[in-house]
Amino acid sequence: MPLTEMEIKKAKATNKPYKLTDGGGLFLLVHTNGGKYWRLRYRVGGKEKLLAIGVYPDVTLSEARERREQARKLLANGADPSAVKQEAKQTNNKALQVARENSFVTLAIEYHKVKSPMWTPGHAKQWLGNLEKYALPVIGNRPIAEIEPMELVGIMRTIEEHGTFETRDRLLQSIGAVFKYAIATGRAKYNPAEIRMALVDRPKVEHFHCIPTEELPTFLRSVTAYQEMDKVSPIAISALRLLMLTATRTSEVRYSKWKDFDLDTRCWVIPAEQVGRKGKGDKRKDHAVPLSTQAMAILRGLIPFTGQGEYVFPNRNYSGKVISENTVLKIIETIGYKGKMTGHGFRSLARTVLGDMGHRWEVLEAVLSHALVNQTAAAYVRTSYFEERRDIMQQWADYLAKVEAGAEVIPLRA
C-alpha cells in the first residue's frame, strides 16, 4: 500500500536498515542513524538500478512521487534517469566553475596582478584594499556579466553616506577598470560602471587654511614666543620651522632621513619613493631642495637630538616611526591659529610672496615640486632651476626673518 506522511514520521531507526515501500519502485530507506532516504528502483536493459531521489523531510512524500513520475517518463522515452541526473550534475558543476572563473573577484585579482607591477606599492595596496572593503562583500562572487548598474549605485551610495567622496570616485574608477578588462578578455559585453550621472556631486573642495601675508609677522612671533616657553619638543618645533623655510609638504618633512641631506652642498634630495610624494609610478621624480642658511641652522641644531638615527624627526614614543602628521598642526593650534593656518599653508604663502617678488612662475612651480599642467611648456622644461631656486629660497628665509623682526619688507622684482 502507498505510504502516508504519518507512517514516515513514525518510522524509527532500528539496528538494521529497512525499507518502506510506496509503489512503482519508490521506497524510503530508514538507516540505523535515523536518516530517511528516498530511492527509486527501476530496470534498464534488463539490469536493475537505483536512483537517489532525496532525503526526507527535505524532499516530501509528494515531491518524491513527482520525481518518480519524471523518472518513469524518461524511461518511457528510452533514457536512463541516473545517466540524466549525472549529466545534469556535471553541467551544473561546469556552470558553477565558469561562474567562479568569471566572478568579479576573480577578474579583479587577475587585473590587479597584470597592472600592479606598473603601480607604486602604495597605490596597488590601496586599489585592492578599497575593493575588499566596499565592493567584494557585495558583488565579489557574482558572475561579472550579470552585475547590474543599480548594484554599483548601491555600493556608491553607502560610501556617500560617510562623506568620503574621493574614495567613492576612486573605487568607481577601479570597478570600471575591471569591467573594461573583462570586456577586453571576452568575459563581459558591457560596462555597468557608467553610473556617474546617478551619483551626487562632490562637495566643493575646501582648500588648506592659510593666513594672509599681513598676519605673518604676528604668527611668526607667536611661534618664537611659544618656543621660548620651553614647552615644546625641539624636534617638533624644528619640523615646523623647516617646513616654513623649505615650502615642502608636511609628509616630506616628517619622513625625511639624514642620508637625504648633504649639509656640505646645502642640498636636501627628497627621494621619489618617499612616503607622501605626489605622482604615480614612473612619473615621480627625486626633488632637490636647496637649503637656506636658516634651514641649515635648524638641521645642525637637530644633530645632537636625532643625528645618530635614521629619521630627522623620529617619534619619541615609537621606535622606527616618525612624528605624527598632527605634530605641526598641534603647534599651530596651540598658538591660536586653529582653523586659520595649516602646515600646507606655508606653501601657499611662499608661492604668493615669491610671486609678488617677480620670480618666474615655472621656477616657482619647481620650488613647490609641482608638475607643469601645460604639457607644451612641460615638454620644453629640461631643468630643475636648482641654482636659481637656491637664491629664491634664501630670499624666502630672509623675508621670514625680516617680517618677524618687524622690518618693513618691500618686495623686489626679480
Automatic annotation (TrEMBL):
Cross-referenced Pfam families: Arm-DNA-bind_3, Phage_int_M, Phage_integrase
Domain annotation Tyr recombinase: ranges: 206-394
Family matches, as SUPFAM superfamilies: DNA breaking-rejoining enzymes
PROSITE patterns, per database record: CB, TYR_RECOMBINASE
Keyword DNA-binding: yes
Family: Belongs to the 'phage' integrase family.
Name of the featured protein: Site-specific recombinase XerD
